[in-house]
Amino acid sequence: MNRHTQIFFLAGAAGQIECALDLPESAPRGIALIAHPHPLYGGTMDNKVVATLGRAFIGVGFAVARMNFRGVGQTQGQHDQGRGETDDMALLLTYMKQQYPGLPVVLGGFSFGTFVQASLQQRLTAQGEPVERLILVSATAGKWSPPPVPSNTILVQGDMDDTILLKDVLDWARPQDIPVIVVPGCDHLFNRKLHHLRQIVTDTWRA
Question: What range does the domain containing 12 cover?
């Protein structure tokens, strides 16, 4: 993500997991884990939406960790439909909490990554250890049905997205009574609209 990015590896059930860490200039005030889009369609931890979310969280003082899902980059294993990916993200969360104990945690994801993060939050909630908040960009409603998420989840969706349809996201969010931030004129990849994502993170967490 920048020249200060630290690459490290964790031992997962399917082999090594390639991870990246970016730190703010001062002591971190929180931890943000950002999950990338579908690995079978070119998704990696260097995806521009993932990178934008990461830079935004660094800007508000968070330590930001990403990983390549199974079969991507130097991460071993094969795509596991979100199950193994959620397990691997849980390992990264445990590692980050050990490195930076006591800090609040935010889970962020884009497209397929939202399914992973919502699944992880569901697991953590069942364990009595939910994270502070989720920010889900192009939640996979209508594709891979994500589990319910907490009421303070931030949902961001482009109205011109033809991969994840706005209607499907609204239908998923409506019974949960969760607002959806709609970015007008925005496609799935947030082309020319990435600055809105950065502003949403900055406005929410700087406050």
Answer: 6-202
